[in-house]
Amino acid sequence: MKKQSFRSTRLDRLGSAIFAEVAQWKQEAKSKGLTIINLDIGSPDQPPVEELRSALANASLRSDTYRYPGTEGTLAFRQTVAKWFQHRFGVELDPHEEVLSLMGTQDGLAHLPLAISDPGDAALLPDPGYPVYGAGLAVAGVEAIPLPLLEENGYLPDFEAIPQSIWDKVKFMILNYPSNPLSATADLAFFERAVHTARKHGVLLVHDNAYSEMAFDGQRPPSVLEIPGAFDIAIEFHSLSKSYHLAGTRLGFAVGNREVLSSLRALKNNIDFGVFLGAQEAGIAALEMDIRDSKPIARVYESRRDVFVKALHEQGWNVPTPSATMFLWARVPEGWSSRAFSQSLLTSTGVASIPGNAFGSLGEGYVRLAMVEPEHVLLEAAQRIGGFIRTAQPE
After folding, report:
1. Do the bridges between strand 366-370 and strand 351-352 make them parallel or antiparallel, or are there none, so unpaired?
2. pLDDT digits (tens, 9 = 90+) for 200-247
3. What is the largest CA-CA distance in the chain?
4. DSSP state, 142?
C-alpha cells in the first residue's frame, strides 16, 4: 500500500508558528509554578457593553435568526455601515455595491488574494506586519515582496525607494495604519501619497484599518477612501472585534472598489454562508451606538498605555509610547535576540509576549506586548519585566 502524506506543503509556507511556540513556553512556565500574564495575543479582556450583549441575546432568541444569513451581509447591516462611515469619515458608500460583511477582517484579508490574484502574481506586504497577510498569499500562490517599515521613518514606507521592476510585477499592496504590531499611525497626507503611488503604478491599495477607533491623544485616524480617486484603486477593511470588544462574534466589513468587492463576494459565495444574523444585529447596535454617542474604547487602552509605559520606564526599560492600538512595540535590551528575550522572559517570569521577528525579518530586535490586562496586572507585569532585565543574561 502506498504511503501518503495528509499534510499539504502549502501549510509549510504559512509562516511563523510562534503562537503555538508561545503556548509551549507557557506550559513550561506553569510547570515552574509561575502565574502567566498574557500579553501575547491581542484579544480584548473585557466584554462588550450591556447594550450590545442585549442586542445579541435578543436576536439569538428570535426564531428567524437561524437561517443562512447570506455572504454579503444583511441590507440593514450594510446600510448601517454606510451610515457610520459617513458619520466617521465623511465618505459616502453604496451599501449594495461598496460594502461587504466579513467574518472579521482576518477572513477578508486571508481570502482576498484568492479572489483577485493568480499563482505567480506578487504583492507588497508590510515588514513588520500582521502574519495573516503572508498566509493569505501563501495559500493563493502569490509571491510576497517585503515593504520595509523602519523606525527612523516613523514606520511609514518609502514608496520612492521601491524599484520600478518591483512595481511592474506587483498586483496589490497592503498597508495597515494604525499598525499591528507597530502601533504607528498615518495622516491624510501619507494616504494621498499612497493613492497617488497606487494609481501611478496600477496596483490595488488594500488598507487594513482594523484599529481606526483605537488611537490616543485625540487622534482620529483617517480612511484611505477620504482621498479623491481612492475608490478607483483601493479597498479598506474594518473590524468590530477590538473597537467594541466583539472579537468572538467574528464580524467586520470591507468597503471601497466595487470590482474588488465583487470578486471577494464571488469567492465567499462558494465557501461560506456569511455571518450569524445575531452577530450582525449586535454590529448594527454597536455602530448606531457610536453614531449616537461616540465613546471610543481607545480610552481604556490609552489609560493602560500611560500606566504601563510609565511603570516600564521606572523599571529601567525605556520603551516608546504607542500612539494607537492595544500593542506596545519595543526594542529588546542589548544582546538579546527577539525570540530569546521573549522565551526567556516568559519561562523566567510568566510574562508572555510575541518576538518581533514573527512579524517579518525587520521585526528582529523588537518584541510586541499586548495591553489586554487590567492596569494592576500591567503594573505587576512591569515589575516582573524590570527584575528580569536587571538580572537575566542574554542567551
Report:
1. unpaired
2. 999 999 999 999 999 999 999 999 999 999 999 999 999 999 999 999
3. 67
4. P
* Terminal Cα distance for the chain, rounded: 48
pLDDT in tens, 82-122: 999 999 999 999 999 999 999 999 999 999 999 999 999 99
Average pLDDT of 30-36? 97
What average pLDDT does range 278-297 have in this prediction? 91
pLDDT for 16 equals 61
**What are the residues whose beta carbons fall under 8 Å from the beta carbon of 84, sequence distance 6 or more?**
287, 288, 290, 291
The C-alpha angle 268, 270, 271, rounded to 5 degrees, equals: 65
The conformation of residue 221, written as its DSSP 8-state character, comes to P
Q: Round to whole Å and give the CA distance between 92 and 99.
A: 11
Q: Report the SS3 class of residue 239.
A: strand
Q: Whole-model pTM?
A: 0.96
The distance of Cα 216 from the centroid of its chain, to the nearest Å, equals 17
Distances (CA, A) of 135 to 14, 256, 351: 5, 23, 27
Q: Are strands 252-256 and 234-239 parallel, antiparallel or unpaired?
A: antiparallel
Amino acid at position 372, single letter: V
pLDDT of residue 9: 83
User: Rounded to 5 degrees, what are φ and ψ at 184?
Assistant: -80, 155
Type of residue numbered 207: H
Q: How many helices (H) and strands (E) does the chain have?
A: 12, 12
Query: Is the confidence at residue 3, as pLDDT, over 90?
Result: no
Residues 6+ positions from 336 with CB-CB distance below 8 Å: 344, 394, 395
Q: Is 199 exposed, middle or buried (0-12, 13-18, 19+ CB in 10 A)?
A: middle
What integer is the mean pLDDT of 2-30? 85
Residue 256 is placed in which grid cell? Answer: 471601497
What span, in angstroms and rounded, lies between the C-alpha atoms of 178 and 237?
Answer: 12
Q: Which residues contact 88 (CB under 8 A, 6 or more apart)?
A: 212, 223, 290
Inform me whether the pLDDT recorded for 318 exceeds 80: yes
